[in-house]
Each structure stands twice: as structure tokens, then as C-alpha cells.
Amino acid sequence: MNQKTKKIAAGLLGGLMAVSLAACGGGNASPGGSTAAGGSGSSSSSSGGSGTTIELAISKSSQDSAFVQQDLLDGFEKETGIKVNLQLLPAEQTATVLQTKLAVDETPDIVQYNLASATTDLNLERNFEILDDQPWVSRLENKEVLSAYGHVYSFHVSQDTGMQGVVYNKDIFEELGLSVPTDFEEFLAVCEKIKAAGITPVFMPYKDNWAANVWPAAAFADYADKNDPTLFEEINSGKKKWADVPAFADILQQQYEVYEKGYTNGDVLSDSYDMAVGKFLGKEVAMMFMGDWLIQNVAENDPEMKLGLFPIPYTADAKLGASPLGGQLFIPKKAKHLEEAKKFLDYVARKDVAQGIVDKQKYVSIFSDVTTPELPEYKQEIVDNYITPKKTILTVDAHMLVDRSELYRLLQDQFAGGIDAEGVLTAWDEKFAQLMKDKEIAGF
Amino acid sequence: MKISRKLYSYYLILPALLIYCVFFVVPALTGLYYSFTDWRLDRVGIKFIGWANFERIFTDKTLLLAIKNTLIFAVATVIGKNLIGLALAIALNMRLKTRNILRAVFYSPSILSVLVISIVFTPMLRSEGTINRIFESAGLGFLSQSWLTDPQIVIWTVAAVSVWQHAGFQMAIYLAGLQSIPKDYYEAATIDGAGAWRSFRSITLPLLLPALNINLMLTLIGGLKVFSEVFVLTGGGPGNASQVVGTIILRSFGEGSWGLGTAVNTLLFAAVTIIAIPLLIFMRRKEVSE
Fold this sequence. Notes:
CATH superfamily of the largest domain in chain A: Periplasmic binding protein-like II
Number of strands of chain B: 0
Shape of chain A: globular
CATH class of the largest domain in chain A: Alpha Beta
Largest sheet of chain B: none
Shape of chain B: globular
Radius of gyration of chain A: 25 Å
Oligomer: heterodimer
């Protein structure tokens, strides 16, 4: 009897303690919970910051970002006494980790992320500070690339968004007497000639499924711009479906045709993006559907290599795809050292500091009082041939309100032979509707 | 009796019980609760939505495919790991000169990180990789496949890699079981005129049942919970062709559908329990004592 009572008592006690612990956990997670840990009162002191450490979270894949270079961080610490600690997040899980950190109020003080993705992945309005009243905002030449919902939410010293199209090796084109193709027929003809010369015409690293999105992302946007300017608004309000646009299926089919005709590397689903630089350096491939950042990466390894960029040739006179600007800095509303984080942006925005970064990275400056340095040849060409004559178009990514990774998987599936072009769009419609519904967007 | 009671009070289980509750019971119960909610990244409040998450699981094609793939993987690896493990154990229980070396060789893949395995196997399994080249040079070109990129066979490939890695571990358990069978049983059987097959069926197998039970349980639960092999070898691709329940959970969390993710997790937990426990009870009954 006694034994039994003890057993029950022990069980009850254990259960009670567990429940009370769980309750504590719940309490801490609520917005009103204690933020004392690590604060050491610095955020309230206006004199500010000496001796504090602010946390900057950044994806591991962006760790060579201009904002986290050691000399910049050292300079900031020397001047203000504020140390910047980097939190490197695993590349494939950056979004998940940041979402979780924001949800449980373990927010870093500064986050580097892409503005367009931040609106879909991180709930920009709820989680991040509006920076409209910051001193550097008045010096911005191009406020739009840092803004969403009519407010400045992010910071960058560059306004160059990165262009997407077909990266090509100019030397190979010259040796074979080829000129830049202006429509799909010409593109196939160029591929045929390159193949005949024993070089792989197009490198498709579609083990990384996002890479299969470059062709459609630019071509869809250009199609809509020319034929149906309100198309994405209609798609985003549930009035039209992706599969309702026959041209989309044609565009996807074109990309597949390049593969089907044997103009690519043999094993497109086994090759990954990190092999691309090596393939170009070894002159094994002549072209790739990618952004101009690839040209920059190749140039870092071999400055002699002449690469260029032309628009996705799905039709005649296509515009060059422009990525939404990426790599901006954001300040979470719940940052523990809000003032210090803003000080960091002030410091980076200062004329001399910003000029140093812009010069070193060869950025197109966003500040009116910071001059753009002489650009590399390929970039100058892009500026002269596409940006200045306004022959660029924001890619579909800029219009997407939801996570796109399922679309990438479907594109990959097309190359695995699992579905055809129409199948990609129908399946994406289904997933898209579900994601939009989850987000409680009207029309779904 | 009385003395032992004085020595060990039941209060001593409290610390262990507490840890068990805090780290297992409470998360499991809260998980169960969240799987009935619309908990999402972009919602401020959490709403109770009944069975909606589970309805979605059983109507979403990708999720159904993931469940199918998980079952294929579990069944294939349970059979593969146990058959090969048992065969290896019987072979390496014989008096071979290289016995100890061979045991170490077959066991060694199971101590490698699955990440290392993927780095080794991914290039081998490419269309122009080592495995296909071996087939071609042996005149068996018709056997070469796009091992990791053909949606029809990719899950089988991942299962095969897993069998390769873990069969040695199963072998170790079977070996321990085999060595606990007294030699005189076999001697008596030989005198009675029993052949190799007969003594395997009537002596080895029944006395090996405890080891078999443990191995079946381990491989079955491991198979149903599969995640890392798929994640590192294919990432669930091409497309969604090799998604399993584990990778779907990760994907749901990545999309911010935390409620759905926990629902899939709850379902996995329930499935493992429902399949494993009756099997365990059934197998226990079959066990014999010497």
C-alpha cells in the first residue's frame, strides 16, 4: 500500500514539475518576456554602446559579403567600441534558422538577407524596423531597391541588382565566328556549331534545382511585360493560373529542348552549380543560363577570361533579366541592441567608408555623394547595352509572394523525365494556391 | 526483501523521470497539440483547426509519395540489412584465417558518417560513374542506370547504399547471437544425421531469434525514420521523386508550415509505434529458451 502511494506520488510529482517547466518555457517565449540576458543595460544608455557586442546573422554562402570584411568590422569597433559578432548560418537552412530565431525572440541585431525573399520568407512588416528616418536615406539615389510596402526596410551601398541571362565565353564565340543569338532558332544554330567544335554548348547544373529557374524567371517576366502587363497581379490574386498562359509552357519546353537536342552536359541532374566556374575556366563549356555574378567569380580566378551576358533568347528582342537586389542588411524590431545596430549602418553609409567598399567591390554606388568606380568590361557593357537604354526587366522572383522551392523541384522533375512542361505548371498551380491560401492572400 | 526496500527508495527514480518528462513527454505532448493547429511562420496567433493538417497529408500527392517511399525504403532495408547481415555473420562465424580482418572490414562502413558515404557514392553513382563503367567493361552495359537521377529507381539506390552501410552492424549482433549457441547442440544434431540446412533451421534460427528480433526492430524503426541518407544523397530529388517523411518534415518547416510539419511528425511517431510494438510482441512470443 505504502509502496503504491509512493509510486503514484512520484509519478504525480514528476508530471507536475514537467508541466511547471513547460509553463515557464511558454512564459519566456511571449513578447513581454525578459530580455535581460546579455543586455547589460547598453540598449537603454544613449551615450551608447562602448563595450557591447552586436550580432550579425548571415548565410554561410554570403560570408564574403562586403559588410562582414574584417577590416570594416575592426574599423567600426575602433571608432565606437562596439564589437560585431558574426553568426554564420548554414546555407540551405538560412531561412529556416532565421524564421525560428525571429519566432522565439532570439533575434540577431542585424540580418543580411535578400529584400524580395525577406518579404516572402521572413514577414518583413512584422519583424523588421522601418529605416525611413535614418540619416543616410536622404543620400540614396535609388530608394526603390531598398524598399518594400512604400518604406525603406533595408540597407546597401550598391544599387546594382545583378543581371540574369546567358553567360557566354566571348573567345569561343569569336574563334567559331559566332554572333550573339537574338532568338531561339538562332540560339539552337549557335549551339549546333559549338557542339560541332567539340565543346559543350550549355552547362546545366540542375542538381541545384534553382539553377533551372534562370531561363523561365527572365523569360516569363519579359513575356508578361510585352504581352500582358497585369499578368502577375492577376496570378497573385487568383484570377489567373500559371497553366493558363500557353507561352509559359512553351518557354519551359524550349529550355528542355536545349537539353533534349544534346546541347548540354550529359548528366544535368548530377552536376552542381559549384562546378560552373571550373567548367568555364577549362573552356569545357561555352554558355550557361545564369547571373552576371558568375562572370565575376570566373574573373576572380582568371582575369584574362572574357565572358559576357546576353538576354534569354526565348524570342526576338528579349530584355535582360534583373534580379531583385540581394544581400541587404536589415534590423529586426526586437534586436537587443537596436541603437548600436543603427550606428553600424551609419558607419558603413559614411561617405569615406562607403566609398572604400564601392571601390573595392566595383559596385554601382547607391549614394549620390559616393562615386561609382570604373567598372569591369562586362559590367560596363551591361550598363551601356541594357541598363542605360532600359532594356532590363525584373525577373518573376520579384513578383512572387511565396516560397518558390517547390517550383524549382518541379523544374528539376521535368529534366528527370517525371513531368512535361504543362505538368510543371499544373503542379505548381496546385502548390502555389496552397501556399497563397496558407498566407491568407485574397482570392485563394 | 525488507532490507532492499530500505536501501532503494522509489524517490531515486525522480531525477531520471524528470529528465524523461522534460525532454520527451512534454515535447511529444506539445507536438501532438501543435499538429492540430495552423501554427505558421507568418501568423501571430495559433488556431486549433482539428484534423485539417492530417486531411492535407492524405490528399497531397507529394506527401503520399513520401509515405510510399518511406515504406519502400523501410521494407527494402529491413530485408537487405538482415539477410546480408545474417549471411555475413554465418560466414564469418566459420573458422577462416582472415575472419577477424573480414569482420572489421564489413563492420567499418557503419562507423562512417553518412556525409562521407554520400561524398564517396555520389560520383560513383553518376551516369558516367564508376559503377556504370564497371558494368560496361564487364559487358553488362544494359545494367547501367541513372542511379540517383531516375525517379523510378532513386529510392531503391538510396536503400541499397543504406544496406551497404549498415549490414555490417547487423552482422555484429547476429555474430554475438551465434556465439552464444552451445556447440554441443550441433554435435548432437550431426550424430543424429542432420544436414547443414536442417541444423540451421532447427537449431540456429530458433536460438538466434532474440538477435533477429532486435535487428528487425532496429532496422524497421531506422527505416521508417529515414532522413539523413536521402537528404545527403538526393535532397529528396530529382523533383520530389525520393522525398520521404523525414525530408517532408524539413520541407514543411522550411516553408514555414510548422503546424503541418508537426502533424507529419506526429503521424510518423504513431506509425512507428503502431507497426513496431505489435511486431515486437509477436516476435517475443516466438522466442524459445535453451
